[in-house]
Design a protein that fits this description.
Largest sheet of chain B: 6 strands, antiparallel
CATH superfamily of the largest domain in chain A: Response regulator
CATH topology of the domain at 397-619 in chain B: Heat Shock Protein 90
Helix content of chain B: 55-70%
CATH topology of the largest domain in chain A: Rossmann fold
Distance between the termini of chain A: 78 Å
Largest interface: A-B, 35 and 40 residues
Strand content of chain B: 15-25%
Number of strands of chain B: 18
CATH architecture of the largest domain in chain A: 3-Layer(aba) Sandwich
Helix content of chain A: 40-55%
CATH class of the largest domain in chain A: Alpha Beta
Structural class of chain A: alpha/beta
Shape of chain B: rod-shaped
Largest sheet of chain A: 6 strands, parallel
CATH superfamily of the domain at 397-619 in chain B: Histidine kinase-like ATPase, C-terminal domain
Strand order of the largest sheet of chain A: 2-1-3-4-5-11
CATH class of the domain at 397-619 in chain B: Alpha Beta
Shape of chain A: elongated
Structural class of chain B: alpha+beta
Distance between the termini of chain B: 109 Å
CATH architecture of the domain at 397-619 in chain B: 2-Layer Sandwich
Order of helices and strands of chain A: HEHEHEHEEHEHEHEHEHEHEEH
Number of helices of chain A: 11
Oligomer: heterodimer
């Protein structure tokens, strides 16, 4: 008798447990808000990053809040935008830092809010981030140098067109480039300028450099705007072939210049992957999954000869239309 | 060698046999242990437990079978569904490609029918096709040397482009009869054009300047039409399809950008091994169903990816459902079995309770049962049995009582012959000596003694008669013992008419003489008192004889003294008779002091029946 009643109690308890377990089926999740703060709101590189982010946002069902100043060197503007995003109460922050030092404070502030901080493209001088997704810029710089050596030879006069001083991607690329150039004492760097990712300034500087240095053999341009500006000037002056151009990134214009032989090699990154992975990592972290704290994207040198290889054309033309 | 093998096999067999025997023994042990423990448990528990056990096993079995069956069905269903969807896509794609071929056929016809190429009709036709078809990027005619002859829309070839080195061109020269579908590629022959296309190319003959020449027709199509066909194909929530060409290049993928950016990979190697059919694989720990179908003309493979966990998700629902059925089934079976077992065991338990009552000596039970035919029969039999036992018990009590009374009566009768013999012996002896007065006294006393002793067979006599009896006995004994003792009788007049059990004094007096006075050196004295004390009738027999040793005294009334020397037989006899007649409250009390004497008190209830009534009573 006692045993039976015990048995019944046990079964009832099990039934209760089972009914409790059933209750957590449906949970309506509010879409997470993720801020994407870039250095600039125009340009091939940034728009491709944004496209990657948008693709990921659709896939993972989150909202992307896009912030970027109009000028790449506008560090204070970007700091303000990050603050704006944080005030808006975003659930995650993806940042391409305009300045290695000056964005530290605001990044750490965001980190203290315990939201995922994913740094893409250019690093900030702090450990208080959750992940860093970027091209290996040092290696990219080295590869540009390698391409320079292969195309212009070990004995040449070369000018460097960088973009913004103080940002980690530009600094790393320069560092990588000089690492290689310094191996060849006959390579003579005649000029180094910063175009501030401004096309007109790039063109102006390019003209200045070319007019000052009659024996210029090559120009290394360290981002897409610098590359396009330099290529345009070289084409205008009819110096194609005489001044070799080692470019960065793969905008349609650059590809055309590459096919026309004005640009001789270009180092491409994978901005789409940066944007996509940035969002993916933020979402993964929000979902409590483990993420890599550094995702390195390999840079690749594209020349006219290898640009239509299956694997390269995919990278160069990531969009079907 | 073979023998060795044989013996080895034999030993192997033996060891297996012993193993089997061991396991069988083990099972025997277990089952017997279970059966043993079952024997000790209550029927109710055994029924309930076994019922639940059987039901649970049945339900679990059914649940598992059902779940498995449903799982198999779900899988089959998923496979069939996916296949149908893929087939649909296949026929659409087939239709689309055939349409493309028709367009090329049409162009070939136009080219053939004209004497000179390029011409306005061809341009017009191409133009109208371009206008209606958004999925066609370019159409172009090349000579066998790679010279661009006609093109729509009007693009310029890039400088230093060698058309004859392109796949789609060489393939048509190698296989003049066939149409060629290229892998997806960026069409880079025209200036400033970089579209991803699939090229359809075929060999043509055309006339130029009156000469018939061989050439190549190129139709580039973009992915918009294929995209549209495949985009809306849904295989569950996460499932999708993609298209591979025969070299393993991805023609269409819903996440083409991720593939291009190197962020997503498809395991195309496994797919390329299949022309059609389906298989399962694991990707990132998820089980996927891969379904493959090959498109006729282009040799493309349509690959459908369906995630099994989405099918299994439904399975989990069914699993939960089965678990619920299981729980409720078990609950239900518990209640049912509880009900049934209590229905069976309850009457048995009640029966047991009644049996306990009987066991404790209560035979006045009569069970009234309605709990099933068997139990009712059992109860009836039980009732019958209890009644029978009761009757038998009563009978035994009666018989026992009758036996004891007859025994006592026999004991009562026992006194007389011995005494009579001795007395008569004394009388003879005195007559011989001529002591006539004493003979007369003795014979008179003896006659009185016997009169009272017989007293018409009554057991109850008056105190007066009992005293008289004792007196006559004493007189006889005094003569016999030559005045070795004296006696005094004090009787309260009030008690003379009270009733007393016959022959209670004489055995005590006899004891006093034989055990107390007989061995005395001095003259003995026996005092008999009769009075009412504490509402009871009290006879006291006091002697100044040897007394009784304390250890004898302790047991004198309880011991079965017939075994021990015959002393105290009278005492015990009297004690028992009084108690038998009047109950435990009455009987004999002995006080004795060695060398000082003994006092025996005989307690009886005061019995003052009327003469007539007591007579009536005694007869009954």
């Amino acid at each position: 008798m006692k045993k039976v009643s015990l048995l019944i109690k046990l079964i009832l308890a099990v039934a209760c447990l089972a009914s409790c377990a059933k209750n957590n089926d449906i949970s309506i999740k509010e879409k997470s808000k993720i801020a994407l703060v870039l250095k600039m709101n125009t340009g091939y590189h940034w728009s491709t990053i944004k496209q990657g982010a948008d693709t990921a946002a659709r896939e993972f069902n989150v909202n992307i809040y896009f912030y970027a100043p109009t000028r790449e060197e506008d560090v204070n503007g970007q700091i303000e935008l990050v603050n704006q995003a944080l005030d808006a109460g975003v659930d995650g922050l993806i940042l391409a830092a305009s300045d290695f030092k000056q964005l530290v404070e605001v990044t750490e502030k965001a980190y203290d809010k315990k939201i995922p901080i994913i740094i893409i493209d250019s690093l900030v001088d702090t450990n208080k981030i959750h992940s860093y997704i970027a091209t290996d810029n040092l290696d990219a710089g080295r590869k540009a140098g390698q391409a320079l050596v292969e195309i212009a030879g070990t004995k040449c006069n070369v000018a460097i067109m960088s973009f913004v001083k103080g940002t980690s991607d530009a600094d790393d690329r320069e560092r990588g480039l000089f690492e290689l150039i310094n191996q060849y004492p006959s390579i003579n760097v005649v000029a180094k300028e910063y175009c501030m990712s401004n096309m007109n300034r790039a063109k102006m500087l390019a003209r200045e450099i070319i007019s000052k240095n009659k024996n210029l053999d090559a120009i290394v341009a360290l981002n897409s705007i610098a590359s396009e500006g330099v290529a345009q000037v070289v084409e205008e002056l009819g110096l194609d072939g005489k001044i070799k151009i080692i470019a960065f990134d793969g905008t349609i214009n650059e590809i055309n210049y590459l096919e026309e032989g004005i640009i001789h090699a270009t180092v491409i990154q994978n901005p789409f992957a940066m944007g996509y992975l940035g969002v993916k990592y933020a979402v993964d972290m929000l979902n409590g999954n483990k993420i890599e704290n550094y995702y390195k994207i390999e840079a690749k040198v594209i020349t006219k000869e290898n640009m239509y290889l299956q694997e390269n054309q995919k990278l160069l033309f990531p969009f079907i239309k | 060698m073979s023998k060795d093998l044989g013996s080895q096999a034999g030993s192997c067999k033996d060891s297996r046999k012993s193993l089997i025997r061991k396991t069988i023994n083990y099972f025997h042990k277990i089952t017997s242990r279970i059966l043993n423990s079952l024997n000790k448990m209550s029927i109710q528990f055994v029924i309930t437990a076994s019922f639940i056990f059987v039901t649970s096993i049945a339900i679990v079995f059914v649940g598992i079978a059902l779940t498995n069956r449903v799982r198999v069905l779900a899988e089959e269903n998923a496979i069939v569904n996916t296949r149908q969807i893929i087939n649909q896509v296949n026929s659409n794609l087939d239709y689309y490609l055939r349409n493309m071929m028709d367009i090329s056929n049409h162009l070939v016809d136009v080219i053939k029918s004209n004497k000179d190429t390029p011409n306005t009709e061809l341009a017009q036709q191409m133009n109208s096709i371009m206008a209606t078809r958004k999925d066609i990027v370019t159409m172009a005619v090349f000579s066998s040397e790679g010279e661009l002859i006609a093109c729509e829309p009007f693009y310029k070839l890039k400088k230093d482009i060698d058309i004859t080195k392109y796949d789609w061109f060489t393939a048509t020269i190698d296989n003049p009869e066939n149409l060629f579908f290229s892998s997806p590629h960026v069409q880079n022959i025209f200036q400033k054009q970089h579209s991803w296309v699939v090229s359809l190319s075929r060999e043509i003959t055309f006339k130029r300047d009156g000469k018939t020449e061989k050439g190549v027709l190129l139709v580039d199509m973009n992915f918009s039409a294929i995209d549209q066909m495949c985009q809306n194909v849904v295989l569950g929530k996460k499932g999708y399809i993609y298209i591979l060409d025969s070299d393993g290049n991805i023609v269409y993928h819903p996440q083409q950008q991720l593939i291009n950016a190197g962020l997503k990979y498809e395991n195309t190697n496994d797919v390329l091994k299949h022309v059609f059919g389906c298989f399962f694989d694991k990707h990132n720990g998820e089980k996927r169903l891969i379904t493959i179908e090959t498109v006729n003309y282009a040799g493309w493979r349509i690959v459908g990816i369906a995630y099994m966990d989405e099918i299994v998700y439904n399975m989990n629902d069914i699993g939960v459902y089965v678990v619920w059925i299981l729980i409720f089934g078990i609950l239900f079976s518990v209640f049912i079995s509880f009900f049934i077992s209590s229905k069976i065991s309850q009457p048995i338990k009640r029966l047991e309770k009644y049996m306990k009552m009987v066991e404790q000596g209560n035979f006045d039970v009569n069970i009234d049962f309605k709990g099933g035919a068997e139990v009712a029969n059992l109860a009836k039999a039980f009732n019958l049995m209890v009644t029978k036992i009761r009757q038998l018990m009563d009978q035994i009590v009666h018989e026992q009582e009758a036996k004891r009374i007859s025994e006592l009566e026999a004991l009562q009768a026992q006194i007389n012959p011995h005494f009579l013999y001795n007395t008569l012996d004394s009388i003879v002896w005195m007559a011989e000596k001529g002591k006539m007065q004493e003979v007369i006294t003795m014979v008179t006393s003896l006659a009185r003694l016997f009169r009272i002793s017989i007293s018409k067979g009554r057991n109850i006599i008056t105190v007066e008669e009992e005293i008289e009896h004792a007196r006559n006995y004493l007189i006889i004994q005094k003569i016999r013992y030559k005045n070795k003792f004296n006696f005094i009788i004090n009787v309260n007049d009030k008690v003379l008419k009270y009733k007393t059990l016959k022959l209670v004094l004489q055995p005590i007096v006899e004891n006093s003489i034989y055990h107390g006075i007989k061995y005395m050196v001095d003259e003995g004295l026996i005092i008999i008192n009769a009075e009412e004390r504490n509402g009871m009738l009290l006879f006291e027999v006091i002697d100044n004889g040897l007394g009784i040793m304390p250890e004898v005294l302790k047991n004198i009334l309880t011991f079965d003294n017939r075994a021990a020397k015959g002393s105290g037989v009278g005492l015990k006899n009297v004690h028992e008779r009084i108690r038998l007649y009047y109950g435990e409250d009455y009987g004999i009390q002995i006080e004795s002091e060695p060398e000082e004497g003994t006092t025996v008190r005989i307690w009886q209830p005061i019995d003052c029946y009327e003469e007539g009534m007591s007579d009536l009573n005694e007869k009954g």
